[in-house]
Amino acid sequence: MSHRGKHQSAREEHSSHSAQEPAPSPAAAPADEFPSEHRKGLLPELYFRWRGGEITRLEAFCDVVFGFALTLLVVSLEVPHNYKELIAVMRGFLPFAVCFAQLILIWRTHYVFSRRYGLEDPYTVFLNVVLLFLVLFYVYPLKFVFTLVFSQLTGGEALQPMSVHEASMLMRIYAGGFAAVFLLFGLMYAHAYRLRGPLGLNEAEALQTRAEISSNAILVATGVISFLLAILHPEWAGWWFFVIGPFISDLVCPEARSAIIASGVIQRRHAHRIHSSNAGRRRRRRHPRHFWQRRRHHGRSSRYRFWPFAP
């Protein structure tokens, strides 16, 4: 075979081997990469990896129900025909804004939980369905309570006078619904904490989950105490909810608490690492490993200072 034929056969053999080789698979996404609905460089939470993937049917259904609940809060479905009707509609703006903020707060809490853990097991679905039922059921009591509260401030038409028993029952309904909603969130986070192993939660994420359980337990206790006050002293039942003021920032912006917990974990690890290294150095100085080190340690000889294992 000529020299040219040898080169041609070698080229054909190389092309056949390259054709048989499988195409290189795309690089696997790293474990800490965020879902596809978030752009790269736009971190939802810096210290908590979101495990929820694409928007699921459960999340879409919950969003639809929350949207319908917000629609029920609309001040008026009819366009005002004169100035008097317009002013009457504008007087209902403040109660509507407060109710709107409360529903958005509940929706955001549900959204953050769904994105963080991405759970869709039967127990989580059951808790979500009960939550949606409570949200729809308490829309009108919520609107009635704040319309009554702001009626004197906005100068609107006062509602029918209520007896002490009726006011007590109204606050019991509101306090019971408040406690039930955050009890469901507490059960969701407790379920996620039980599954911290399969979910792969790190130390900071597990501490954040426990902090969420504690926060929801405090809110449930607030609702229960208000319910008891509505029975004993109805005039104090509404004012009791102002004690949750320090926790509003945690509810609105849970990322800040995640950063605090993560920084605490990092500092604790750093302190433990420094303590371990110092303890190891002291141990090596007290208990030299070799005869030459012992002689040097007690200052009897400086001949073996070049010993490489000396501390």
Order of helices and strands: HHHHHHHHHHHHH
**What is the straight-line distance between the termini?**
70 Å
Residue-averaged pLDDT, rounded?
74
Largest sheet: none
Rounded radius of gyration (Å): 32 Å
Give the tally of β-strands: 0
Overall outline: globular
Tally of helical runs: 13
Q: In percent terms, what proportion of residues is strand?
A: under 5%
Q: Please estimate the helix content.
A: 55-70%
Q: Specify the structural class.
A: mainly alpha
The low-pLDDT segments are 17-37, 290-298, 300-311
Brief digest:
This protein has 311 residues and is mostly helical.
List the helices and strands and how they pair.
Layout: H1 3-20, H2 57-72, H3 83-91, H4 93-117, H5 122-137, H6 139-154, H7 164-194, H8 196-199, H9 203-232, H10 234-237, H11 248-252, H12 254-286, H13 291-297
Describe this structure in words.
The protein is an all-alpha fold and 311 residues long. The protein has a domain at 57-270. Helices cover 69% and strands 0% of the residues. α2 packs antiparallel against α4, α5 packs antiparallel against α7 and α7 (164-194) runs antiparallel to α9. It starts with a helix and ends in a 14-residue tail after the last helix.
